Amino acid sequence: MQESTANQVAANATSSFTEHLQRDRPELLPFSRSLQGGASGAAPLQVPHATTIVAMSYGGGVLMAGDRRATMGNIIASRHIEKVFPADHFSVLGIAGTAGIAIDLTRLFQVELEHYEKIEGTQLSLEGKANRLGAMIRGNLPMALQGLAVVPLFAGFDTSAGVGRLFSYDVTGGRYEEHEHHTVGSGSVFARGALKKLWRPNLSAADALSVAVESLYDAADDDSATGGPDTVRQLWPVVYTVDRTGARRVPDAELAAASRAVIEARTIAGREA
Amino acid sequence: MTQQFYVSPEQLMKDRADFARKGIARGRSVVVISCADGIALVAENPSPSLHKIGEIYDKIAFAAVGKYNEFESLRQAGVRYADVRGYSYDREDVTARGLASVYAQSLGAVFTAEQKPFEVELAVAEVGPDQAEDHLYRLTFDGSIADEHSFVVMGGQADKVSSAIEAGWQASLGFADAVRLALKGLTPAQEGDQPAAPSPPGALEVAVLDRRSESSRGSRRAFRRLNDADITALLA
User: Which helix (H) or strand (E) holds B178?
Assistant: First the structure.
C-alpha cells in the first residue's frame, strides 16, 4: 500500500512542462489537435512557411541566423517574421517549416526549459535540451504527415564541456549533432554551398557573422521563399550568437553593416551568378 | 462499527489551527522586504540546496516557512499554475494576486477537508516598476490572505523579528541595507551587552527581485538567487 503511494508520487512528479500539459491541459499543446477530414484529395493547406536558417560554430561559440520572409504558396506572407529565437540563456533555436506550429513549438520549448529550471533549481544539460526538443518534434509527427512539418535547428553552449554545439532534426524527432555548420529550409542547399566555401575553423565572431549573412544572401538569390537583406525597409536577418557569456542578439547596426558589405562586394563584382 | 465521538466544528478548527501553528513556530524565520531596488527575500537556512525561497515567474517570487515537503509541493504547483497561465494567455497576465488567491483556495480547502492542515506559511511577492506597485501577500495555513506593505515576516520568532524590522524600515533602502536590516532582525539579540553574532553567509539564503532587471541584466526574469560570494560582496 505504502509502496504504491510512493510509486504514484514518483510517477506524478515531473519537471517537464510538456508532460504536465499532456496530462492536465492537452488542448493547449500545439500538436494535440487532430486535423479532421484527412485532407486527402483536397488542396494542400495554405499556411505561411518559414525558410532558411543557417548555423555554424566559430571560435568560442555558435552563431545562428535566419532570413525574414514567410511565404504562402507563391505569395510573400510576411517580410518581418523572425525564425531564430533564444531558447534560454545558453541556447537558441531556429525554425523552418509551417510557421504557426513552429512558433507555438518554440514558445512551448522556451517555457519547458524555464519550467525545468524553476522546478529543479538548475539548468538542463545541453544534451537534455536537445533531447526534449526532439521529443516535441516527434509529438508533431502526425501533423507532419499531413503536410504541417516543422524542422528546427538547435544551437547552444555546453557549459560543462565549454564548447558551442549544434543539433539538427528530422520530422520524426531524430536528433543529429552537426559539426562545423548546418542549414535547414528550402534555401538550405544554396546556403550550404556558400558555407562550405566560406566557413573555416576558429572563425572570429565578426567573420562568422559575415559568413552567415553571405550564405543567406546566396540562399535568397536562388530560393524565392528566402528573403534577402531589405535596404528599403531596413530589414536585416535575425542573428544570435551563443558563447560562454550566454546568448546575444546581434544588434541591427552590425547586421546593417555586414549586409551592406555583402551587397557592395556583389555590386562591384557585377557578375551574373 | 465504532461510533465516532462528536466534536464541535469550533473545537475541530481550533485544534487544527493550534496544530499548524505549533508546526510553523518550530521553524526559523523568513523576511521579505520591499525596498527601492526591488524586493529582498532573506531566510536563515543552513542547507544550500533545500530552498525556502524560490522563483515562480518573471516578477514573482515565493518564500515559505514550515514543513519542507508541503511548501515545496505548493511552490511547484505555483510554478505550474504560472507557466500554464503565461503560456496560454500572455506573460504579463501572470500576477501575484492570481497566484495568491489560488494558494489561498488550496490552503483553505486542505485546512477544512483534509485530515491534517498544511503546516506552512507563505509569502508571494511581485516586484513592480516602482515601489507603490510592489505586491506582498502573506498566506497562512488556513487560507487566510493578507495584503502587506513594506515587509512580511514569517516563522518561529515572527513577532520579535517583525518589531526589529519595523523600527529600521524605510522606503529608500537599497538591497544591501534591506538585507542588513533583515539580518539584524533574524539574528537573536544576545543576553547582556554582548553584540549579536552575525550569521555566516553559508547559513543564509538570500534572493532578490530586481526592479530593473531588464535594463541591468537584459532579462525579464527579475529573480536572482545570491550565492555566498554575492552575499559577502553585498554586505561588504
Answer: helix B175-186
